[in-house]
What does this fold into?
Amino acid sequence: MQLNRRPHLIAVILILTIVLLTIAGISVGSVRITVADILKAIFRPQSISRNTAYIIRNLRIPRVLSSIVIGSALALCGLIFQCVFRNPMADSYVLGISSGASFFVGLGFVVGISFADVSLPVVAFLGSMLTTALLFAISRRNTNSLLLTGISLNFLLSALTTLTIYLSDKRAESILFWTLGSLGNSNWSRLFILCGVLAVAFVIVYSNCSSMDLLLLDDSTALSSGLDVKKKRILLLSVASVVTATVVCFSGIIGFVGLMSPHFIRILVGPKHRRLIPLSMMMGSVILLISDMICRFIVPPSELPIGIVTSILGAPVFMLLLRRKRRG
Amino acid sequence: MDEMIRIKNLCGGYAENQVIKNLSLDIAKGGFTAIAGPNGAGKSTLLKYLIKELGCPESTVFIEDRDIRQISQLEIARLVSFQGQYVPRSEEFTVREVVALGRFSYGDVDRNTKEVEKALKLCRIEGLADKYVTRISGGEFQLAMLARTICQNSDILALDEPINNLDPRHQIMLMNLLKDLSANGKTVLCVMHDLNAILRSCDKCILLKDGSIFAYGETKSVLTEEIIKAVYGIDVQIIDHQGKAVILFK
It folds into this structure.
């Protein structure tokens, strides 16, 4: 009975945390904003200064909502990769899919694409998808070799990204900043695209909860239970690759959220994906909301790359969680 | 049509390693059939063809007279349930959650509690239902996996060494359970090494050697001193103990 009640309690706690962090996230920054200002900006924008209204409506709110959506998306991808490879260390970074995107972005900078160029997300998306295609082609869809191929590709593409930084001279700082992740370019149109992709991905993945549970056993058991293991793996990996590509192209590389969120929730509610998927996504949002606030809070008016914060926060928490791993 | 499983001239295995060599076999509906033989003889490989883990290049495996290649994976699950030798249990599922996964092909994993409770009761592990599989013994996990197989409610049970890890009491309990299931119309196919357990419980025995059938028939006619010597290369003596045949290894 206790097991059945707990996910709901955790969901309520996470939702409340997200609401509080959303309000705090809109308030915190180089310009301090009160809760009253937020409400005015939403419901009566003419009652506050135009600048404040602009900051709240077009900068802070899209940015905070992007944190929620991107955090969820990263957690969902991490969960899929960990399930498909039955490996707690698998995620889009380990498999080189994110590195593929950053390499292409690096190449883009070398050939003259600017940081604000609209083609940059497209280039990143192309890099992610090509890496995924290459991953499948080389490993011939064998799960074990897929993971090893991914790790090798990650090393290769990371080295090539470093090479583009070396070659790009004046643009090196831009590439480096992008590879460390940022939510600074969030806007409403990007947010809508992210929401659309994540909504479709969530529906597909959540309708495959039981399949993902079975994948955690072994292939023979999953097959004999009626699961077409190969097809299901390809479907889930394709979904994760598209989501990763979309996230990376809008926010750069943000590590650790995809790895940490599912682990944290798994310790609390166990491995059943029906509970794990929504709660991990909420957890991802919480982690990214906190990280984004820290980025903006530490060195105002400039900000730290978010990937640095997620890694600094994530690594010790992750180690602590592993040490204290328990459930029930 | 009494044959539940029909295999015609099956050859196959893994990549270039041909494990099964021109094997033909008919298994009637119902009954408890053991598959025995030395390590590497092709016992587990044979079961893998029945769940389509290994694909048949030609029309060689038939279930209820239907070419297995024409049967979807979901439909296979309703015809054949399988318990493998090694199932990882790194995740903290409860026993009940694992057993319920047997309902996957019916789409009621989280709803059909009746079948789950029935399977738990049959395997006498109701008391373990809410324990995590990572915190029970190997034998208890084996029983949980068997309950998952039973929960699948298919006509054929294909089990790969199900009594490994079990203590004698649970071995006898499990063999009696499989006998009861076969008496109630299930076709039970069981890879086993314990020849005495086969002799005690199974109706028929398939003895494999080097990927081919060396002997197949009533258990007592297959497990003779001569055939065991020829297949395993060991000397045994079969004695009568209180009306039951017992194999003594010399």
Observations:
- The interface with chain A takes residues 48, 51-53, 73-78, 80-84, 86-88, 90-94, 97-98, 101-102, 104-105, 109-110, 130, 132, 145, 148, 152, 158 of chain B (CB under 8 Å).
